[in-house]
Amino acid sequence: MRTVKNPQLQLGGTTIEKIKINLKSRDDIPPLLLGLQHIYMITELRKKVFAILEEHINPDTDNGTGRPGMDLWNILVFGVLRLNLNWDYDRLTEMANNHKTIRMMVGHGTFTDDYEYKLQTLKDNVALLTPEILDKINIVVVEAGHSIIKKKEDEELLGRCDSFVVETDVHYPTDINLLFDAMRKVITLIATLCTLCKLGGWRQSEHNIKMIKRLFRKAQQLKRSTSKNQDKKDARKTLIKTAHQEYIDLATTFLARARVTIGQANSGGPMAIALIFEIEKFIAHAERQIDQINRRVILGKKIPHAEKVFSIFEEHTEWISKGKAGVPVELGLKVCVFEDQYGFILHHRVMEQETDDKVAVPMVTETKERFSTLTACSFDKGFHSPANQKDLQEHLDKVILPKKGKLSAKDRVREYSPDFIQARHQHSAVESAINALEVHGLDRCPDHGLHGFKRYVALAVLARNIQQLGVKLRKQEIELLEAQEKKLKKAA
Predict the structure, then answer these.
(1) Residue 76 covered by a domain
(2) Among residues 307, 324, 343, which one ends one of the domains?
């Protein structure tokens, strides 16, 4: 049975409430641990977080028997550390096994406790956290932060909303390298299928991949002629077409062989069925790329953007051009964040095939469902549309949304008012929050799949808010210590 937190204190261990964290350290670990410590120390707060974890992460077995899983508190601690500190799992494993304070935070003693976490154990357990779990915990953490900072419980929240790109872990896509990716997977998996079903015909799978790669490199390295001589241009164009034709012809031959082999694989059980499903997925990718290469290079046609795929492994990847200086294109997904005036991220949204103007109203309504005291929000021009200007007024008392294009007399009065200008100046603070997220792990997502991407983003937002909570607590504790020192000096 999986427990939330082992109540048994290890020999030589220290209760979480009594862990001493260095307030003077400028590293990112102490404020994060301070935030986690606060969550655990406040009974009501701890109960809320533990209830969410218990509700959504099921026991290892239906009967509650068998080998116990990692404590839910430990999963949360390791997940937050991994994201906020931008660690990979190797670094997380090393720190989980050798960092004294982190081990104390997850209940290990300092004398005889030599328990070691395994890399795969951490991967499997942190993956149990879902975007839904993390979103619920994030609300609890933000409310805890507000209870520390806000002077009045019903004090108004002022929001800032903006979007940025989180890159997926993919290489720069071209139609020929995407075809090579697909063919490499088809040949590798079909060889595994043959071994499983005791079939022949693919023993030279490594050699086959080398044949494909040789033709891929040949097509890749041919550049268009810059000569002014038309004959030389035509000759180079013919060479390029020939190289690409040879490449797709060989790929087509291997695909045909793969389909024959799949038809012969009538044994192997569930594993063979799962393999065949994977192989057919990559065959479909390869056939699409062959078609696009043929149309673009051989027939000279233009491929519509809607038909393009930018990764066969991370299929949710989008081609995003935000017009930033020095960044012509980014490969990933846009993420919209909603920050309040205290630096906490109230809500976020992974934008799938969405533009800023399409998410402005949903972001406000969803955030207001979570935090009813939200009364105002600022945006940049990318979120503007006539409908948004009208709809947002129904949900907020004050909407700071600059209009695109030429301003009417009424719009000019509104946008040149002192309140509007002041709010616009304060809006730029959201860029600081976005930069902090990117620095602390949210620049590039190494996790696989759309679900992994959403979990990674949600965990980064939660980790950032816990760190912010720790920063506020550290500031209060330092001020308290300084005040006590002054009193002692005066008394002396």
Answers:
(1) yes
(2) 307
Quick count: other Cβ atoms within 10 Å of Cβ 119?
14
Q: Name 127's Cβ contacts closer than 8 Å, sequence gap at least 6.
A: 452, 455
Residue 65, CB-side half-sphere exposure with 13 Å CA sphere = 1
- 33, 101 contact by CB (below 8 A): yes
Contacting residues for 345 by C-beta, under 8 A, at least 6 apart: 138, 142, 337, 338, 339, 433, 437, 461, 464, 465
177-230: per-residue pLDDT in tens?
999 999 999 999 999 999 988 888 898 999 999 999 999 999 999 887 787 888
Tell me the average pLDDT across 107-123. 84
Find where tokens 């020999």 sit: 11
Torsion sign (Cα): 409, 412, 416, 422? positive
- Sorted by sequence, the CB contacts under 8 Å of residue 360 that are 6+ apart come out as 161, 379, 383, 385, 388, 392, 401
**Statement to judge: residues 365 and 388 lie in one domain:** yes
**Where is average pLDDT lowest: 95-99, 148-152, 354-358?**
148-152
Closest CA relative to residue 332, chosen from 170, 471, 447 = 170
Does residue 163 belong to any structural domain of this protein? yes
Let me know: does 166 contact 332? Beta carbons within 8 Å. Answer: yes
Residue by residue, DSSP assigns 94-142 as HHHHH-HHHHHHTT--SSS------HHHHHHHHTT--HHHHHHHHHHHH
Q: Which of 430, 378, 338 is nearest to 142 (CA)?
A: 338
Is 387 a residue whose pLDDT tops 50?
yes
For residues 116 and 48, membership in a common domain is answered with: yes
- The residue among 317, 326, 357 whose CA lies nearest residue 445 is 317
Domain extent for 125: 16-129
Q: What's the pTM?
A: 0.90
Q: In angstroms, how far is the first alpha carbon of the chain from the final one?
A: 57
Residues 186 and 300 reside in one and the same domain: yes
**Tens digits of residue pLDDT in 337-352:** 999 999 999 999 999 9
- In this structure, the answer to whether residues 78 and 107 fall within a common structural domain is yes
Number of independent structural domains in the chain: 3
Residue 63 — pLDDT band, cuts 50, 70, 90? Answer: very low
